[in-house]
Amino acid sequence: MKMRHILLAVALTLLLMGCQAEEPVGTVSVPPETSLSAVVSTPLEDTPAPAPSRPAQPTPEELLAQHPIDGTHDAFLVDTGGRLGTLLVTAEKGERIPKSELGDFAVTLSVWNPRNMEMPLQTMETEVEDWCFGRHETVDANFDGHMDFSVLCFMGNQPNYWYLWVWDEEAGQFTEVPEYTEISSPRCNPETEVIDGWERYSPDGDGVTTFHRWEDGKLVCVRRIEVWWEPDEAIRTEEEITVFPMHLKVEDRIDGELTQVYYQYFSPGESFSSEQEKWENLDYHGE
Asked: Over the stretch 19-56, which tens digit does the pLDDT of each residue have?
């Protein structure tokens, strides 16, 4: 009886050793309460795709480079210095104006915001001489810190006249200044805030010098100096040379109107330039 108990114990020991030898080494079992889906990674197709990147917004300089500039197209940039920043201005030359004595052509000017090129901010219709098309300037003509632009409309041997549009920051657009077209060869001086002009009559140095200032938002002429000669005052010298006496007249803006404040007659050969130079100083009002 005792021997039977010993044999049974040995058999059980051998059985347990065999079970342990069959168990795989290093295998980790998944607890029955753990779902298989929690162990498997999320499928790739369920991962949200990254949003597509938007194309870079063209700079004003890049837009300008894309615009044609030739005999019938022009383009330039105007840095307004305001909330809209730099704007693109384009010009398109149209048909010849039939009744124009100067052979003028219709021109369409368009102002564009480079950040929204769907439609122009504004469009202006004007006309220029054929050879003036494509000539423009950017300048702070009203000295308010915002850049404006002008377009050449007429050009002679010396006189040249320009259209002007000044930037209105409050309105967010350009406004034309008709008085600017009365100034020949305009020069804007930011130190004096004066726009002076010069129109030559002849090689003798005669002509008109003008000075304009801004008053209550309007461009007005504050002084006009004219030097001229009269054809019927011709004088023949002993050398058989025709000479003319010269006239110099100065007008100042008084009570809203140009009023003559000085006049002098100069005999042939007598210099008028020194007297004219005195009056070109707006602080000078005569002796």
From this structure: 444 444 444 444 555 444 444 444 555 566 666 666 68
- For 164-213, how does the pLDDT look when each residue is reduced to its tens digit (9 = 90+)? 999 999 999 999 999 999 999 999 999 999 999 999 999 889 999 999 99
Terminal Cα distance for the chain, rounded = 156
Helix H segments across 206-281?
273-279
Contact 191, 182 (CB under 8 A): no
- Alpha carbon distance 227, 208 (integer Å): 7
Distance CA 280, CA 259 (A): 16
Q: Where are the alpha helices (DSSP H) in the chain?
A: 2-22, 36-39, 60-66, 273-279
* Letter string b/e over residues 33-71, b meaning 16 or more CB atoms within 10 A of that residue's CB: eeeeeeeeeeeeeeeeeeeeeeeeeeebeebbeeeeeee
